Amino acid sequence: MRHLLAVGVVLxxxxxxxxxxxxxxxxxxxxxxATSAVPPAPIPGAAAGASISGTVAAPGTLSAGxxxxxxxxLIQVVGSDVSSLVSANGSFELKGVPAGEVxxxxxxxxxxxxxxxxxxxxxxxxxxxxxVGGAVPVINSDSRVNAGQKKExxxxxxxxQPPARLVVNNQIVEVAAGSTSxxxxxxxxxxxxxxxxxxxxxxxxxxxxxxxTALVADVIEVQQAxxxxxxxxxxxxxxxLAEGSCDARNLAFTVTPSSGPVRMIRTNEATGFSAPCxxxxxxxxxxxxxxxxxxAGAVLAAKIYFDPPTVSVSGIVAAVTAGSCGGKxxxxxxxxxxxxxxxxxxxxxxxxxxxxxxxxxxVNARVxxxxxxxxxxxxxxxxxxxxxxxxxxxxxxxxxxxSVKSGSCGSAGVLFEATVAAINGxxxxxxxxxxxxxxxxxxxxxxxxxxxxxxxxxxGTSDVVFxxxxxxxxxxxxxxxxxxxxxxxxxxxxxxxxxxxxxTVVGIVAAxxxxxxSGDTLFATPxxxxxxxxxxxxxxxxxxxxxxxxxxxxxxxQAAGPMSVAGTISGLSSVAACPLVTFAVTAQAVTPTxxxxxxxxxxxxxxxxxxxxxxxxxxxxxxxxxxTLVATAVKK
Length: 636
Description:
Elements: E1 8-9, H1 14-19, E2 50-57, E3 74-77, E4 83-85, E5 91-97, E6 100-108, E7 111-120, E8 125-133, E9 136-145, E10 150-161, E11 165-168, E12 171-175, E13 181-184, E14 187-188, E15 199-209, E16 212-222, E17 231-243, E18 252-257, E19 263-266, E20 272-273, E21 285-291, E22 299-306, E23 311-322, E24 331-336, E25 342-347, E26 353-354, E27 366-372, E28 379-389, E29 392-406, E30 415-420, E31 427-432, E32 438-440, E33 451-459, E34 464-473, E35 478-491, E36 500-505, E37 511-516, E38 522-523, E39 535-542, E40 548-558, E41 562-570, E42 582-587, E43 593-598, E44 604-606, E45 617-625, E46 628-635
Parallel strand pairs: 2-8, 12-16, 13-16, 19-22, 20-22, 25-28, 26-28, 31-34, 32-34, 37-40, 38-40, 43-46, 44-46
Antiparallel strand pairs: 1-7, 2-5, 3-4, 3-6, 6-7, 8-9, 10-11, 10-15, 11-12, 13-14, 15-16, 17-18, 17-21, 18-19, 21-22, 23-24, 23-27, 24-25, 27-28, 29-30, 29-33, 30-31, 33-34, 35-36, 35-39, 36-37, 39-40, 41-42, 41-45, 42-43, 45-46
């Protein structure tokens, strides 16, 4: 950057400048409009030499330009007739400046100053920024380019000026026929192949002719073969199918947007469609995304979005012609009956939605199909298949439940398999129940080994029997009666008539039986007398393979009173609370029986309360209170 002080300064009022002998002649042309961005034409001067261009600005307002002053400014090369008016944006250009030391004079609008611009050579291009502050003008910036200098330039082509000139990043580029190499990668191009908007890299030599600085290109490398185009989105209805075809990938059609003119759309092999291209027709609502190359007069579609027209058919499945549900490519014919019977071919794929199971699409099933069909085609590509009615055949058989596969009785949706000996020498039937299936005596009786009578129906080609009724034949329970001591109240209550208790039977080997009562149980003594420690007489039955006695009669023969139990301590509370502690005693017999024990202040411990610990084998004596044995003595 150069800062040159003025070598001569003459300040005078605007009126005295008009009368001065040294004042320049009044300019004959007004300054350019403030909106003009093109430097004003210089006052005619020498046709050869250097060129000096730049900007005049006030301090701190380099972008303000001539707006910082009043009147008209004129810049002259002292000692020559080369001059230029300063435009409204502060720019100027001096062409044909003689070689040597240059002194510039700036005058007009109350200003008359001179400053040294330094030495220039013939063919040299100089660009400066002059800052005028008070009486001292300064050259703030000085950039010089000499003729013959090598230069590289990269940027976007802003304009093409015939016969062979480009403007790249505000720099004039001359294209020399026969000597400038133009290429894109390995492909050779011509000047005609270049387009505004392309990005290029230029290597060449600076040339100054008639005061104009240009870069004479040796090589122009096109970095982008086609100028970038902004994405265009067109929404509207297809007004006409103009030409081309989907098969040739060169379709052309017009779209009428909701606002604006009709737009021409073209496709090529790269165009994508949200649905088959062949489904496009006049009136279809589309959204087109693409670009509009300069001069093409049409949008080149990258993607076309549209909802294809939906067709539907209802009728009876006349034939299953090909494919499979497993392959998700089922193909079948639907016969629709109306004024004239018609048959439609239906194809499915992985996207097809079935209202129930695909396997229910069988001959004579009644279906409704929704999908897409090409114009003039009798084939529907199904998006949805609703099976409204499946042909069925009644079936009834007796079998043994071999396994319960899934489901629960709570929802009544149980799937089980039953082995049937009487069908073809033995086979297995899969049975599906639902909320409408009737069970006798109950759904919970459907267990492995149970004998069942199944009434239901088959549907289509499915191997599943859809049961309407399942009757379970339960084996007669084995009768049993015994006298025992109540060891534990396990659940239920007398009020709910579902009391469950464990009773210890003393015989050759001590054993514990689980007793289940119900509303059918006869209590010979009040149910409330069934307590821990009471002796009871029980009559009932045990189902085959079961371990619970379903009581038909219960009688308390001796009320709960003194009780003695021997076994292992578990769940002992902290001995810090001695003598008031709680624990459970598990008596080891055929079936373990656990009794809750509570000690008290009068309980006699041997050897002592604090010596107790979980795992100790003890004998406890006491009296029963509800389900608890209140200990009078605890002995290890």
